[in-house]
Description:
Four copies of one chain form a homotetramer. By secondary structure, chain A is α/β, with parallel strands linked by helices. Chain A has one domain: TIM Barrel (Alpha-Beta Barrel), CATH 3.20.20.150. Helix content of chain A is 47%, strand content 11%. Chain A is built from 15 helices and twelve strands. The first copy, chain A, has helices spanning 10-22, 51-65, 75-78, 86-96, 123-142, 164-180, 207-217, 236-245, 271-282, 305-324, 328-336, 340-352, 356-365, 372-379, 381-394; strands spanning 27-28, 36-37, 40-41, 70-74, 99-104, 147-150, 155-156, 187-191, 201-202, 221-226, 249-254, 293-296. Chain A has a five-stranded parallel β-sheet with strand order 6-8-10-11-12. A three-stranded parallel β-sheet of chain A has the order 1-4-5. In chain A, helix 8 (236-245) links the parallel strand 10 (221-226) and strand 11. The interface between B and D is large, with 47 and 48 residues.
Amino acid sequence: MPDLNGAVTEQDQQRVWAALDKFRIEIPSWGFANTGTRFGKFSQPAAASTIEEKFADAAQVNALTGVSSTMALHVLWDLPSGKSDIPKIQQLERTYGIRSGSINPNLFQDQEYKYGSICNPSAEIRGNALSHLLDSVEIGRALNSRDVSMWVSDGSNYPGTQSIRRRIEYMEEVLAATHAALGPDQRMLVEYKPFEPAFYHTDIADWGMALELARRAGPKAKVLVDTGHHLQGTNIEQIVAWLLHLNALGGFHFNDRKFADDDLTLGSIDPYQVFRIFHEILSDTTTNFNDIAFMIDQSHNLKGKVEAMVQTVATAQELYAKAALVDHAKLAELQKSCSLVEAEETFREAFWTDVRPIVRAWRQSHNLPANPLTALAESGYVEKISQERSAKNAASVSSYA
Amino acid sequence: MPDLNGAVTEQDQQRVWAALDKFRIEIPSWGFANTGTRFGKFSQPAAASTIEEKFADAAQVNALTGVSSTMALHVLWDLPSGKSDIPKIQQLERTYGIRSGSINPNLFQDQEYKYGSICNPSAEIRGNALSHLLDSVEIGRALNSRDVSMWVSDGSNYPGTQSIRRRIEYMEEVLAATHAALGPDQRMLVEYKPFEPAFYHTDIADWGMALELARRAGPKAKVLVDTGHHLQGTNIEQIVAWLLHLNALGGFHFNDRKFADDDLTLGSIDPYQVFRIFHEILSDTTTNFNDIAFMIDQSHNLKGKVEAMVQTVATAQELYAKAALVDHAKLAELQKSCSLVEAEETFREAFWTDVRPIVRAWRQSHNLPANPLTALAESGYVEKISQERSAKNAASVSSYA
Amino acid sequence: MPDLNGAVTEQDQQRVWAALDKFRIEIPSWGFANTGTRFGKFSQPAAASTIEEKFADAAQVNALTGVSSTMALHVLWDLPSGKSDIPKIQQLERTYGIRSGSINPNLFQDQEYKYGSICNPSAEIRGNALSHLLDSVEIGRALNSRDVSMWVSDGSNYPGTQSIRRRIEYMEEVLAATHAALGPDQRMLVEYKPFEPAFYHTDIADWGMALELARRAGPKAKVLVDTGHHLQGTNIEQIVAWLLHLNALGGFHFNDRKFADDDLTLGSIDPYQVFRIFHEILSDTTTNFNDIAFMIDQSHNLKGKVEAMVQTVATAQELYAKAALVDHAKLAELQKSCSLVEAEETFREAFWTDVRPIVRAWRQSHNLPANPLTALAESGYVEKISQERSAKNAASVSSYA
Amino acid sequence: MPDLNGAVTEQDQQRVWAALDKFRIEIPSWGFANTGTRFGKFSQPAAASTIEEKFADAAQVNALTGVSSTMALHVLWDLPSGKSDIPKIQQLERTYGIRSGSINPNLFQDQEYKYGSICNPSAEIRGNALSHLLDSVEIGRALNSRDVSMWVSDGSNYPGTQSIRRRIEYMEEVLAATHAALGPDQRMLVEYKPFEPAFYHTDIADWGMALELARRAGPKAKVLVDTGHHLQGTNIEQIVAWLLHLNALGGFHFNDRKFADDDLTLGSIDPYQVFRIFHEILSDTTTNFNDIAFMIDQSHNLKGKVEAMVQTVATAQELYAKAALVDHAKLAELQKSCSLVEAEETFREAFWTDVRPIVRAWRQSHNLPANPLTALAESGYVEKISQERSAKNAASVSSYA
Lengths: 401, 401, 401, 401
């Protein structure tokens, strides 16, 4: 193992090493595609527009990082023909050595979801939404994917225009029916978000609502924390602590933001917060680590897509490694005696320490490049796919007007 | 009944009238006392500094409004000798015709609560906090008060200095023990607040945490919503809807704010939001209206204290009357058909309508002054108490330094 | 004049009437078009997709309200061929009796603006942006439009990726060159916005930056306040007061929001705030009222577009009428003596008063329908255009994927 | 010089070293005193309550850090007899080797400032406030202190209760008169804050207002940025960049916060933001570094006061050293070519690097302890003053009630 600096003991390093051994993070297929804001998309020549291209890109990311061998799928975009696309996906899994990760139904894009999907006052539309959810569950089971990640974007834009109460009941019904269809190894992850695309009220606005709905649905339903889905000033690590305490944390959609759900790359705005979230997880003794799905959910509107993904995986590893450096026994002692400055210094010591040498050593010991971003640049991969894909991509630009 | 205007039918007016008949709002004893910010208090000559003065002021407010016959008590400030002050309170109740309202323990002022009260790492300090809570329960029972309103101000100021997880367990233990002591007609209301006086984390930060703690404590524990205790952008009426749905809404601490927990007078910043909160309650069909405690919790730092209280009661009545004007059947129909503009106009019609004539008529029919604020001015009450109290108050100014 | 209620004197009514006489509000062409969020657009059969349809819709709104005879144009969308579209616009002005309002350049949609337009590190791209601005100025002059409304959406998504400082200098250069091209009766309005579509930094983030840039550009540059472009908790009416004090207020983009730049209909979330903004304007004695451009800037993603526009104009009139009711002399007296409760009651008296009867009377005296929304419904206009446009609109749906 | 790690060149280290050579930070006298929230103060045995104790504590901090030889004074608290206390302060300067830093007038504590000081509608009260400001200027001149730091806490709590416009004029008048009294080497720093202690409007709410007021006052007036005085989501480093661009940055009040003006220790919540602020300053080429006053303004409500101060100075140095590591030439190149990921990695490389070894080496080369906090613990200083001061401090506890 490398010499970090005098302050990092052999024991510290072993703890970090062991933590790295068990850390995996899932990448989203849509992170390789062109995305944008309501004001338009900036098209990138290297963007993936087919599911095969997304598998190829994911394989490249995993070849460089070694910790991201699953890819989240978005049903509508990646399996446009629904269940009949399953064999194709399975073929791609074999070809690229990437397994299907969480399955993401789409409840926001169809024109009939204008006033809501599973909260829509129309029983027929709610029924259609349920069908899509049941298909998604079936797809997940066929692909041996554990998690169905449910983001319900329903809400309303104006006070008085919808009954908040009645819509709770609608949701409960659909979620229970979806839960009933889950296979023995499947889970349903309920995501929450305070606003956008609805602006006045979002039907699942916070972790409390997501938790209630998950419980009503059944024991395989857990809460999914998207780090960008909180009001300004929220203490996210406290929510993580509560969900762990209640045995209700299903996993994360990782990203960063400055104001709203900006879907920026993890740790780009507030890396200390990411460190604190990892700390809550690593100091937990009640939850099976593998029951927490670490997933990326970002929109790489401006950054190169493959570059952004590699950068995110590397940053996640490094912030996680910092959290693994925390000396829990010493910290607990100082917290108990309310030695504030000493406790904080002990905690922050781990954050200040440059863990990159040890992460690099870990990578090299697994025959991975020490610096995945540099390796990506040297590989010429992005240039290659840019050439292959650019003509096709130039045509697909959409805009606000 | 008065003629509001052409758009308000006889039936509408009866609905409002009936709603007014059942509306009562509790005033807090501390609303009559000198309060301030961390930068100092501005002393008012008419401020109350004894419990008798607070009872006198409450009686004056109720004489003018007729809907505020109970006064919330703060154990530490109003019963400084604890249980032995009970007879004195009972005597004041008889003298002033004001009953004791909710009982408010104090878990923030003692020096030993520096690092927390019921979440303090010290078992001894937690024990002391529990004792105070048990005393408060006993006081409540002796005074025939239904609710013990628990604001737990515990938290920490710096990441890493306290274990968020461990403190959850501490709280659960104390709250369960407190619940066990409740009499058959008593309830425990669990309040939440995202920040202040602790700045990094508050142990009960949001309604989800309050709800979990209430449930663990037992069936007599409900959630208390203080309208100033939310992050910017929170949809408070949605939380109210959820708590009603879950049969977990215990009551309100009403006030208004622009940014943080400013404790301004109700409706002074965003009256439309107050209207929406009342609407959720009035459109609820599952909860016993009397199970919802409507309480004021404000700090009248600059406004005259009795004036501010009368103004708040009157404003609460008027915004509540507006909400009572909403045509629920028509609104439900329009919500179901997603007729957004029509639904909003139906909803807002009630808000735009000037209900003051009907509220005035209701007051007069109960031998109350049509305009309580004007009546207060004419009564000379504030001048009288200013003269009586001013010398005493001049001495009690405290400051930041 | 109608009898409002006892509290509203003949003199009050005359003041409101006179205020209504001078109030005009501009509607945006894009408010009639399909808009959405980054997650997709919900297509409406009645949406306008051609400039002629937008003129027709604007004419309909003005026929019903009588106060919205100008329509803001978006250069890229409404004059896709640039200056050569001017004769076509002039023809439509004559046909529909609607004049061209403010001219809105587009600095965000072209692929080359990925990293900025007038702040782009590339001198060539900045030059292209300047060309577009100069064209916009020329279009404005040809159409006898006073204002070029400049929303610069430039910014960056990640710390360190752009030089904030250097970009200020780029902007100053382009804005000065644009100002130099303004005709004698033209103005340049500089808009600010704290985030979106850029997430880490927006080059013109607040009114202070907009003001500095306007001053550097020249005397015909003023600040444009979009009510949705502020951080949570901002006191917008205070900014309005400061801009009036500095003689730098050019106008408004009116809309409402709960959290971010939600572009909801005016007054739908916080009507009291709109009232307060109008109050600052109506209590100003230094600015020529006509120098303030009142413009709507909303996205009617869910509401019917023509309905939403009519509703907004009516609501703006009514909230403005409430502000006109304020008794300035009495209020000034009470503010001076710091009679807080009395001052607030005097101020709010105007807000509580139902001014709809007087606004209806004003409309009828101008041969306009008393209730424009009802009149719209009775006109069958929306049904008519839905039939005419629906086939065309069904094809144009875009989405996130 | 020490070996940081392979990535840090000799040249990098020299740059950091040179940067450390010129960095000084001022500590506030009130950081050693008991402070609290509106809910009460937790008294500390080691708290300073006399000006001599504050000088002693400051001397101790400077003995350990070597970069904090000036102490900001609060006129009301530290010179309670005003100008006649000057000789006493001068004596303490000589005794303790600490010079007087910025002079802080107090415009919030006197009872007559209830409705404002320099914005008060009463000309007499404004006159009194001006007198205090003129005294403060004179004190500053006598003490050879460069800066008078003006925090104007004026504002209002309720819409309509004060004239925002009129109060701007009041302020301008007083500030101009104060500026006129400044000596040739004195400056006036105008601070801004969006809320607290006033809740609806603060008269100097943001940097734009502070800048306007500073300009009106005169050329010796600059803007003071308190890092805790911003709305959630504000990009503070952008404001710093603008103030540098406009040659209007006077200095900083450093602290950290999670939600409001929490006055926590610098870098405790968001260290990356502090790094970014230092980066803007270090990449500036137009401002004289010495014209920027780096000052701490924190309330150590829970942390030990001397410990918190030492910790803050050390953290400031370390985050500043990280910023000094940034390779400006390389970064500028990557920003110009919009190489986002590379630019960000270059920028963040400096943040990830553990600069503590080089800061320690710098300290040792100046005969300072490598780790000031450890040295403080070993010195026994806090225990010593606790014993000396504890009896006195126990008596001085104040509270909310």
